């Protein structure tokens, strides 16, 4: 995909999200995450289940608002807005959920589901245009209006429901799409169709997108840049097209090494094979490790990693890592 490098469409700075867990404990879901999405760019967020990537996506759209940090949509700061102002500003940013069936009201027909946002926030829309605009939106996502417009969600397949969710999101002409695991509940053949639809739509409409998933190959193929998360922290941010050659953080290398070579493209990760992770019990977000949160599984960990949290640093243009020891690969300047 190509990227338009203008003023950022979406910016988040030092996001912190924590959830109470009883007995004075709290889940450290997101700890100091910052990101920037340019106009027309797709940023992929990658990591294992429980790393906080979906929580980041929800905090961007203020569902719920982060406990600390700021989110800017264009020139509007969403954090701290009054509820009505937030709802109006949030119409410029739409979210597509992981489970499309649960995301749709089972009592309503497709035509009403797709039109609902427009009926609330549309600027002077005439209800007489509803059928024509809904039909156009359904065609844009590959659905036959005559077949599905009067159906309810339980009468559609999972892939059709996700297309309805995408049509509903696009009806408000958003500037940014937040896609939270949008294909993980779908069959493999349907996944490819939905991914192609999202990629085509973002290009045609010049939309920015935050694409969240745990599948390395999916995130790599649809994104311009990839942000890798582990236990609420950002490990590495790098361009997707050089991911298999240029990734240097031990956690990113571990994710890449877990894939069959065919899914990575023409070559496996460059350089020596990634060292095996250290045998250790997986850390809990209730009590994350000191210093670098990946150190309990990292083959490069030293005493410094336990005592000092690594600060993000840029090792080449557009490539940032948070690791004391990882360095750029010599054969890739």
TrEMBL record:
InterPro entries: AAA+_ATPase, ABC_transp_ATP-bind, ABC_transporter-like_ATP-bd, ABC_transporter-like_CS, Oligopep_ABC_C, P-loop_NTPase. Residues 266-288, 306-333 are annotated as: Disordered. The keyword Oxidoreductase does not apply. GO terms for biological process: peptide transport; transmembrane transport. It comes from the Bacteria. GO terms for molecular function: ATP binding; ATP hydrolysis activity. Keywords: ATP-binding, Nucleotide-binding, Transport. PROSITE patterns: ABC_TRANSPORTER_1, ABC_TRANSPORTER_2. Residues 306-317, 324-333 have a biased composition (Basic and acidic residues). The keyword Nucleotide-binding applies. Residues 10-256 form the ABC transporter domain. Belongs to the ABC transporter superfamily. This is ABC transporter ATP-binding protein. It comes from Streptomyces coelicoflavus.
């Amino acid at each position: 995909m190509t990227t338009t490098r203008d003023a950022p469409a979406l910016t988040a700075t030092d996001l912190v999200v924590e959830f109470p867990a009883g007995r004075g404990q709290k889940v450290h879901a997101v700890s100091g995450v910052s990101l920037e999405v340019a106009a027309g760019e797709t940023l992929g967020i990658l990591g294992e289940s429980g790393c906080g990537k979906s929580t980041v996506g929800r905090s961007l759209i203020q569902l719920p608002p982060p406990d600390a940090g700021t989110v800017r949509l264009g020139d509007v700061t969403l954090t701290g807005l009054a509820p009505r102002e937030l709802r109006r500003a949030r119409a410029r940013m739409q979210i597509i959920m992981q489970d499309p069936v649960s995301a749709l009201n089972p009592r309503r027909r497709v035509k009403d589901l797709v039109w609902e946002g427009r009926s609330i926030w549309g600027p002077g829309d005439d209800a007489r245009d509803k059928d024509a605009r809904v039909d156009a939106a359904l065609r844009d996502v590959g659905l036959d209006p005559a077949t599905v417009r009067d159906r309810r969600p339980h009468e559609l397949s999972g892939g059709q429901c996700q297309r309805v969710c995408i049509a509903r999101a696009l009806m408000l002409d958003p500037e940014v799409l937040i896609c939270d695991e949008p294909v993980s509940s779908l069959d493999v053949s349907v996944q490819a169709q939905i991914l192609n639809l999202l990629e085509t739509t973002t290009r045609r409409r010049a939309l920015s997108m935050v694409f969240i998933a745990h599948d390395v190959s999916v995130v790599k193929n649809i994104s311009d840049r990839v942000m890798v998360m582990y236990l609420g922290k950002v490990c590495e941010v790098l361009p997707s097209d050089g991911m298999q050659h240029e990734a240097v953080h031990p956690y990113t290398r571990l994710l890449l090494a877990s894939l069959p070579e065919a899914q990575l493209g023409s070559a496996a990760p460059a350089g020596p094979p990634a060292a095996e992770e250290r045998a250790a019990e997986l850390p809990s977000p209730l009590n994350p490790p000191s210093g670098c949160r990946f150190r309990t599984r990292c083959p490069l960990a030293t005493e410094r990693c336990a005592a000092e949290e690594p600060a993000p640093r840029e090792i080449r243009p557009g490539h940032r890592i948070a690791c004391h020891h990882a360095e750029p690969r010599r054969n890739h300047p």
